[in-house]
Amino acid sequence: MKFRILAVWLVALSITSFAQVKKISTEEKFVKEVNTLAQDKMMVAAFNEIDRLNPTTIKELIMLTEIPAPPFKESERAEKYKQMLEEVGGVKVWMDSIGNVLALRKGTKRERVVALDGHLDTVFPAATDVKVKMKGDTLFAPGIGDNGRGLVAVLTILRAMEKANIKTNDDILFLGTVGEEGLGDLRGVKYLFAKSNINITSWISIDTDGTGGVYNQGTGSVRYRVAVAGPGGHSWGDFGLGNPHHALAKMINYFSDNAARFAPTAKTKTSFNVGIIGGGTSVNSIPFESWMEVDMRSEDNNSLHAMDSIFKASLKKGLDEYNTNRNMGPALTMKITQVGLRPSGTVDARAPLIQRSMAATQYFGITPTLGAMSGNANLPISKGIPAVTLGWGGKSANAHALNEWWLDEKGTDAIKLALLTLVSEAGLSKK
């Protein structure tokens, strides 16, 4: 989306990471469970296979990253990912009608379904150069981390489980989902829970940088496209007609001021951002339309609703004031369209999935931290289904930017950590 920006107004309370973290303790029973599992000979074999596969994993990370997957156009990458899952064997693989790639690995008891998710899409438009460039030992490319690395982690976990002949009590659903980013509005995961007949009971996303973060809270968001319309005309000959750009500027000013006063008083971190502005035909023309796209986020639904109310009231006040003071011609009109809604929610830190995630993190010598972020896990969390987002490992930065990079520094640890969490949650079967 950054490449369509005509103007950016960063009006968040502060410029911080999309994920906020905090420390929490892990119950001893889960530490013992996970440590015992990690030392099982099949798990040790799977860990060794992840290490052995690492050159292949990195090679495939480059290959997948170089297949463009812009918003709403993930099909080419999806077809390749489907083929790669099929080549592993041991799973039933298919693509649903919205474009998600699914691979079901059956358990021995089949009482539950644990999902392991990486998303297929990126934020970058189709014309973006996604060729991976290596500088020293670092890979540079848009989407190399978010979420190419998540996809190959999911694939490598399946390969390691097959190689080590790990069987689980529960079914495991390996996923490559569409529409996680931006205006995709979680359409892939929303489709799964609305239309699929698969009863997913636990959810693990691999969709954040580093190793050790355990994100059990979904940051909610609401997004709008606002269009202000008028008759348009010549900047000299029709001077005095309502100007949508001028009106929109007044509306943004009221919103920015009012929202900035509210944000520090909110129960939890709450942000707002006018990300894209457009409209107009030429420098000497009164535009017939001015539009913007706005994002508001909060870790608390009540605060998000309050910010939403401030937004709508500010727009109305700004437009009404502008129309009242115009010189001639018809009043300008406004259309507000909701283009995104991500529900928020929290999984209790004492839930088994979260405790197992933290215990697995500790097993690799990392102090676990709980935090909040916005992603596919928001949807199951909002439905009361235990869900967590884990890191893709290594070191990376500049997600959503052209200079995004990833470095393989203990990169396999995160994949092993996700595998350990997954098998712990699904239950190792001895049958």
Q: Evaluate the radius of gyration.
A: 24 Å
Strand order of the largest sheet: 2-3-7-4-8-18
Q: Which stretches are low in confidence, meaning pLDDT under 50 for 5 or more residues running?
A: 1-20
Helical element count? Answer: 10
Mean pLDDT: 93
Shape: elongated
Q: Can you say what the CATH homologous superfamily of the largest domain is? A: Zn peptidases
Number of strand elements: 20
Helical content band: 25-40%
CATH architecture label name of the largest domain:
3-Layer(aba) Sandwich
What is the N-to-C succession of helices and strands?
Answer: EHHHEEEEEHEHEEEEHEEEHEEHEHEEEH
**Structural domain tally:** 2
Amino-to-carboxy terminus distance: 49 Å
| Beta-strand proportion | 25-35%
Description:
The structure is a single chain. The chain has 431 residues and is an alpha+beta fold. The chain has 2 domains: 17-219 and 344-426, Aminopeptidase, CATH 3.40.630.10; 221-342, Alpha-Beta Plaits, CATH 3.30.70.360. It has 10 helices and 20 strands. The strands form 5 sheets. It has a 6-stranded mixed sheet. A 4-stranded mixed sheet has the order 1-17-9-16. A hairpin with a 7-residue loop joins strand 19 and strand 20. Helix 2 runs antiparallel to helix 4 (148-163). Mean pLDDT is 93; it is low at 1-20.
